[in-house]
Design brief:
- The complex is a heterodimer of chains A (286) and B (304).
- Chain A is an alpha/beta fold and 286 residues long.
- Chain A has a single domain (6-281), classed as Rossmann fold (3-Layer(aba) Sandwich), CATH 3.40.50.
- Chain A has 13 helices and ten strands.
- In chain A, a hairpin with a 2-residue loop joins strand 9 (250-255) and strand 10.
- Chain B contains eleven helices and two strands, in the order H-H-E-E-H-H-H-H-H-H-H-H-H.
- Chain B has helices at 7-18, 24-60, 80-111, 115-130, 133-147, 154-178, 182-190, 195-223, 227-232, 252-259, 267-298, and strands at 72-73, 76-77.
- In chain B, helix 2 (24-60) packs across helix 11 (267-298) and helix 10 (252-259) runs antiparallel to helix 11 (267-298).
- The longest helix of chain B is centred in the first third of the chain and has 37 residues, at 24-60.
- The interface between A and B is medium-sized, with 29 and 23 residues.
Chain lengths: 286, 304
């Protein structure tokens, strides 16, 4: 796990490389590394369900305002790691963890941090679009309503703002009262994204958000994800290595529950420090 | 095939040689299966229609709407008190039973963490569903009417009917909650909704059609029950009132059970029994329609 320590080792170099692959790269990526540039960090995190250890001694800083991709073969623990960031695993039977995950330097399991407020700050988008069985409008503002972030009269304009943000407004503005299940899969996923954005999260976790979508929808989700940074920190699990290259500033490669390598995306794909990484990104396993 | 020949032609021309024709055995099998399904359907529908026609036929010749609000007087008159009795008993039972059942179903499907505990509780209400209603009636009679000295009345009748509806509504609640997609719960969790908010606004809402359907089946069954009521409400021609105990009260099924078995010349009693049967039928039908409407409204934003 020699390279696991990540940006602290060579901040300038990594920032430069990141900048060269993506013209949209964020300001945060170019700043020298410091604590305020870390949105989330896993500290020696070990996690198990019953007898099965899913994650072993993961240490990683997720850079604020950047897109970080989690890649690795099936069963490598990338989705488990992602779901740990907003404590979606806590209720799984046999769940146990050691080590810690910090958000703004404080443990996400700190008793003073309410689970609901953690999840408000750390939003999530799932593999399959999961709109609620209510109208399109109600879907967008479901979180806003639950947290009483705005009064009733403001709901429609909030919905419009976020549907516009995800590029769905034109398509749905005449059927806001309709069922979301009549939308296409891609539109449903965009609706879920609008719903997640409406509660103004700091971090957005994406669990293979495009794996059930067609290429066009995938492209619009990817383009959107790039517009979210640097206001929002994005962590995305993907099976699709090309997708990681297209949208991620930084990439973490996991294998068998261990963090193998973490670095700027371009470096990890073109000049990996670990042989394991080279084998995986070169298509020799996984 | 080159060019664009008429479609029918193209089909026969290309189909003939390319595809082996469906074997005679398979064709016969298809036909037999189809016929069996049709026979089964007829077996279900015919007696139902025959019964409905019988009930309407017997009542139609003398039915007057005034029978609905005319007072019952011994074995003659109208159906005012029995209708009120049936409605009040059933309503009380579904309110008390519904609350208990929905909470039980919620517990089983959402809160219980032990498989063993769940299967014991589930076994409990499934056994309850299998107990003959006349046994429930007898237990109600011994425990409530006699031992608690309540006498015949609305309270013991409603409680026994409550026990009768609980298994149906609990089962419906539990299964419809279990069918709520995980995606809804995860989505709600990820938005930081609290457990109670998620349950109230997302999960229960999605389960409403199933719960309502179960409750309606329960109501329809309760409306048609006679045996438990004979033991707990007895019969009288007094309208239901705030006297919850020590006042026997009438209900429609009693008229059907007792009056129709009376031999001539008490013709008026037979007539009343036929009217009661018709009113019961219409009540059940109206309930089913209302339930369908509620379910359709709750499902207007649902998947599929």
């Amino acid at each position: 796990m020699s390279t696991a320590a990540d940006p602290a080792s060579s901040p300038e170099a990594s920032a430069e490389r990141t900048a060269s692959i993506a013209p949209t790269v964020t300001a945060a990526a170019q700043q020298p590394y410091d604590d305020s540039a870390v949105a989330l960090s896993a500290v020696d995190l070990t996690l198990s369900f019953g007898q099965h250890t899913i994650l072993s001694n993961i240490t990683a800083d997720i850079r604020r305002g950047a897109v970080t991709a989690l890649i690795g073969p099936t069963g490598s623990g990338k989705t488990t790691l992602l779901r740990t960031f907003n404590r979606m695993n806590d209720k799984v039977s046999g769940y146990r963890h050691d080590g810690d995950v910090l958000i703004d330097g404080r443990s996400i399991w700190h008793p003073g941090l309410e689970l609901t407020s953690l999840r408000r700050r750390v939003g999530m988008l799932f593999q399959r679009p999961n709109p609620f069985p209510m109208s399109i409008l109600d879907n967008v503002v479901a979180g806003v309503r639950a947290h009483k972030m705005a009064g009733k009269p403001a709901m429609k304009s909030i919905a419009e703002q976020h549907l516009t943000e995800v590029g769905l407004w034109a398509a749905v503005k005449d059927r806001l009262k309709d069922s979301p299940f009549r939308l296409s899969g891609g539109q449903q996923q965009l609706l879920c994204l609008a719903r997640a954005l409406a509660i103004q999260p700091d971090v957005l976790l994406l669990d293979e958000p495009t794996s059930s979508l067609d290429p066009n929808a995938t492209e619009s989700i990817e383009a959107l994800v790039r517009t979210l940074v640097p206001d929002i920190t994005v962590v995305i699990v993907t099976h699709n290595l090309a997708q990681a290259v297209r949208i991620a500033d930084r990439t973490i490669f996991l294998n068998k529950g261990r963090l193998v390598e973490h670095g700027p995306t371009k470096q990890l794909f073109e000049n990996p420090a670990e042989e394991e990484t080279a084998n995986y990104v070169g298509g020799r396993f996984g | 095939m080159s060019g664009a020949p008429p479609q029918g032609l193209a089909r026969t021309a290309s189909g003939a040689g390319l595809w082996p024709s469906v074997s005679r055995r398979r064709r016969a099998g298809n036909w037999v299966f189809w016929a069996l399904c049709l026979v089964a359907l007829a077996l279900v529908i015919t007696p139902t229609l025959w019964m409905v026609a019988g009930i309407i036929g017997r009542a139609a010749s003398h039915f007057k709407f005034s029978v609905l609000w005319t007072s019952t007087n011994n074995l003659t008159g109208g159906l005012r008190q029995p209708i009120l009795g049936t409605v009040v008993i059933t309503f009380a039972a579904i309110i008390i039973g519904g609350v208990i059942s929905i909470l039980t179903g919620l517990y089983l499907s959402e809160f219980s963490r032990h498989r063993g505990e769940r299967s014991i509780l589930r076994g409990g209400y499934e056994v309850l569903a299998g107990i003959p209603s006349i046994v429930l009636g007898y237990v109600g009679y011994v425990a409530l009417v006699v031992d608690l000295h309540w006498g015949f009345g609305l309270l013991p009748a409603a409680l026994v009917m409550t026990v009768l509806v609980i298994p149906y509504v609990t089962k419906a609640t539990e299964t419809s909650l279990a069918q709520v997609p995980t995606g809804y719960r995860e989505g709600a969790e990820a938005l930081g909704m609290s457990t109670s908010y998620t349950l109230r606004k997302i999960v229960l809402k999605a389960a409403v059609p199933g719960i309502v359907t179960g409750a309606l089946v329960a109501i329809a069954i309760a409306i048609g029950e006679t045996a438990p009521l004979i033991y707990t409400a007895s019969f009288s021609d007094l309208a239901p009132s705030l006297h919850l105990t020590h006042q026997a009260l009438p209900y429609l099924t009693y008229l059907v059970y007792f009056f129709s078995s009376l031999v001539q010349p008490v013709n008026s009693a037979n007539i009343l029994a036929n009217d009661a049967a018709l009113v019961l039928l219409v009540l059940v039908l109206v309930l089913i329609i209302i339930g369908r409407l509620i379910a359709a409204r709750a499902r207007r934003h649902a998947e599929s």
